[in-house]
Amino acid sequence: MENNNTLPTTLLVGLLFAGGVYALAVLEYWSVAGRLAWARPVRLALKLLAREEIKPRQRDAVFYETAPVLLLAAGTLAAAVLPWSASTPLLSLATGALFVNAAFAYAMVALVLGGWSSNGAYAMIGGWRFLGQLLAYSMPMVMALTATVMRAESMVPVQIVLSQRGLWNIVYQPVGFGLFYLAALALAFLPPFDLPVAAGELAGGAWADFTGARRLVLRLGRLSLVMSLAVTITVFYLGGWQGPGLPGVVWTLLKTLLVAASFFGVGHYVSRVRYDLLLEWSWKYATPAALLNILWVGILLLL
Amino acid sequence: MVNDSRYLLLLGMLACTGVFAGLLYLVKFSLGQSVAEPGKDVPAESGRLAVEPAWVRYHVHYYGFALLFLCFDMEMAFMYPWAVVYKELGITALLDMGVFLLILFLGLVYTWNQGGLKRQ
Questions:
Q1: Between chain A and chain B, how many beta carbons pairs sit less than 8 Å apart?
Q2: Contact A191/A268 with Cβ under 8 angstroms?
Q3: What are the distances in angstroms from CA A51 to CA A44, A71, B29?
């Protein structure tokens, strides 16, 4: 296993990630307003910094400060393991696929902490709702990843990309891809599953009482979460850096941005899903489907 | 024990995230403070100032799902190493894990049958 955490690689991955997050901010606005406003992320950041910052009284100060940073960390940590090309995993862990899951799990902790700490009923219910959502999306997501590990015979992301040389996993295990895609939407609380933080539901839910710079960090954290998830889908299901002509890094970036654009597009056309229905559907249909997907991949591998 | 320095990278990333957020807060701090006024710092609760903290007991209805989740999550801990060696072991691995999953799946079916998966 090689690690390329040299300075140029680190800078390259950091720049690609940051640029991707910026592009995602533009794309998200495009999905809502229908036009590409390139300067809007900057304007929004400046606006959040300039606004008066009000912290709720009697808040749980430690959790209130931890939650935004933890969400940002959850979004970025997974990026260290995910390769943009054959030579750019910052950290080639033998447990890579598992680590990606573990990193994403902290998003739930961050949201529950954020909802709890502001000492408002709406915010707290928002946090609990996201916990309920985790119980729904987590199992299909983890099981879908297991099936990709089965094919690659390794948890190292680079090996998983290499295992898709002949046929991408999206074709090899379409059910797993579908489950992972939906679970990713739920994990990043993107529109069909944005009940925990939707502005129209609980006065803003888990985020209701964050203003100013902390709100900015939360927004950045969510975008980096979406970015990491899009890279994860590219690496695990869309053949990673593989593609004709262009260099690998460019292919990864293109696929990632396409996946992210499709995330936002889906949210634009589907109505919001209640978390209790999501729980019910997930355990009745998604979890059995994930088990069948494992069986399907198992049989294909033995043939 | 060989490659422990790799994890320094993760620690470094965590530290960078913290420092980045801290810098943003510093910029925010330098731009001026909010004026303390009564009623301004009420949490979003339709303008009503709650008498007691919000941390009183709320019923979380999905605890049944949480129990199911725990048992399936434990199973996943076994599944990752199994998935790595799956192809090597062949049909034996498929049958072994199949029996294990079937037992768990029967639990899910039982919960379903008892109405545990209904929305509440």
A1: 173
A2: yes
A3: 11, 22, 11
Arithmetic mean of pLDDT over chain B:
82
Q: Per-residue confidence at B3, pLDDT binned at 50, 70, 90?
A: low
Which long-range contacts link A245-251 to residues 24+ away (Cβ below 8 Å)? A247/A85, A248/A84, A248/A85, A248/A86, A249/A12, A249/A16, A249/A84, A249/A85, A249/A88
How much of chain B exceeds pLDDT 70, in percent? Answer: 92
Contacts of A52 in chain B (CB under 8 A): 34
Q: How far off is chain A from B17, nearest CA to CA, in Å?
A: 6
Predicted ipTM beyond 0.85: no
pLDDT of residue A2: 55
The Cα of A9 is separated from the nearest Cα of chain B by a number of Å equal to 13
Identify whether residues B24 and B64 lie together within a single domain. Answer: no
- Whether residue B33 has pLDDT greater than 90: no
Which segments in chain A show pLDDT lower than 70? 1-5
pLDDT at residue B90, as a whole number: 83
Q: Does A276 contact B119 at a Cβ distance shorter than 8 Å? A: yes
B67 and B22 co-located in one domain: no
pLDDT at B1: 44
- 3-state secondary structure at position B11: helix
Asked if B55 and A116 touch (Cβ cutoff 8 Å), the reply is yes
Number of structural domains chain B divides into:
2
CB contact (8 A) between residue B69 and residue A138: yes
Give A-chain residues touching B85 at CB under 8 angstroms.
153
Q: What would you measure as the largest C-alpha separation in chain A, in angstroms?
A: 64
Domain that holds residue A142: 5-302
In angstroms, the separation between the Cα of residue B88 and the nearest Cα of chain A is 9
Whether this model's pTM surpasses 0.80: yes
Residue B6, in any domain of the structure: yes
The verdict on B47 touching A (C-beta cutoff 8 Å) is: no
Into how many domains does chain A fold?
1
In a domain, B52, yes or no: no
| Residue B95 CB neighbour total at 10 angstroms | 12
Cα dihedral A60, A64, A70, A72, rounded to 10, equals 170
Structural domain contains residue B2:
yes
**Could you give the CA distance from residue B53 to residue A81 in angstroms, rounded to a whole number?**
41
pLDDT at res. A217: 92
- Domain that includes residue B3, residue range: 1-31
Per-residue pLDDT, A233:
94
